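Example record

The entry below shows one chain as it appears in the dataset: sequence first, then structure tokens.
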Amino acid sequence: MARSLLNRLIPVRFGSVLVTVVLGSALGVAQAEAASPTVQITGYAGKCIDVAGARTANGTPVQLFDCNGTDGQKWTIAPDPLDRSLRSLGKCLDVVAGSVADGAQVQLYDCNGTGSQRWVVNAAHDIVNLQAHKCLDVTDWNSANRTRLQIWTCTGTSNQKWWATGGATSPSPGGGTAPGSGGGTTPNHDGGAAPGTGGGVTPDHGSGTAPGNGGGTTPNHDGGAAPGTGGGVTPDHGSGTAPGNGGGTTSPSSGFVVSESQFNQMFSNRQGNNFYTYSGLVAALGAYPGFAKTGSDSVKKQEAAAFLANVSHETGGLAYVTELNHANYSHYCDSGQPYGCPAGQSAYYGRGPLQLSWNTNYKAAGDALGIDLLHNPYLVQNDPAVAWKTALWFWNTQSGAGYMTAHNAMVNGSRFGETVRSINGSLECNGRNPGLVQSRISAYQRFVQILGTNAGSNLWC
């Protein structure tokens, strides 16, 4: 999906290990690496992404090689969604000459924040270059040591699949699984969860979860979750107000606790995509009048900041509207539903601030909002107000992988950590991917500061 995955080291999930990919921020190399996990990335034929000879010279080839634990096979996925770089030996994975063509080789190069160094790892185990929208690929399916890596149109084949050490089992020699081809069997990191009571959500840019009674939305660009009953309340309140750089003035025209200038300050680094407008968000607020208008002034601001922080994580800082991995598009049709997929088998891919996906979710959201999204899912990528409404639908009515809706988590005292659990808890919470959770927390802390309040308690899930 379009998943935004830009800020903070975008956590990408390799198996059960969440790796964050940085996008090219001004964050220093030492800083970024200190804050992020170091992983070994395994792929085709069970071999590793390797910097040739562990050399640090600009232009050093990045290749496939037997896993050996040397420094040239240790990679850091930055935790800052605005960075999105993938780093080794103090330098960045880079597409030669900034090319976006199929077959463009990759190399090690000084980190410079350009698009050729911005990557996301999705739930389908693809490593996608955000400038070219193409996948890291083993040239010609050649499993020999020293085979150069390149970018290529994403195909879902095993020479484009990657796992982080400590996560899921890497593919057997020559193998590797492609993204869940039918919309899922049981929950796994390549496909999605099958229909059932658990629901669930998927991680950045991957596939998504199939319909389930537990609901869930998709996180980070590609997946999506099925409708759920929502509900749930919790205890305790985080409170207090703290000074912030941006002040906490409510927008006089909309009554929303986030003014347009504060919204622009939160997303000051977004590049080239102005689809997610402030006016579109304000126009969507009427669909859920309790959102950011329940509780004390501090709680209202905290809920708005929590929502926008999770959106930032899912969309890469509002950079992406639709799922990036087109190979997954046909997977989101649950043809067993009586209403089917009238817009087409491949029409229900991830879209919008929380990457709505699956025909079941489009129908549920559309029914709740009074919009026929089952027959016209493209409204979510063409109308900013509709896009924001689908995200507010999930936030206010679906419990996803958690125990309560994200709205209830913020207003009834469970706080920010439980919003993460609802959106992507099955992949991030309970120690599954602390780097990814920290990325969301960092955005939330920055946003509450802009709004002139504090983050409250219970940030982790």
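Notes for this example: The radius of gyration is 20 Å. Residues 180-461 form a domain with the Lysozyme fold (CATH 1.10.530.10).
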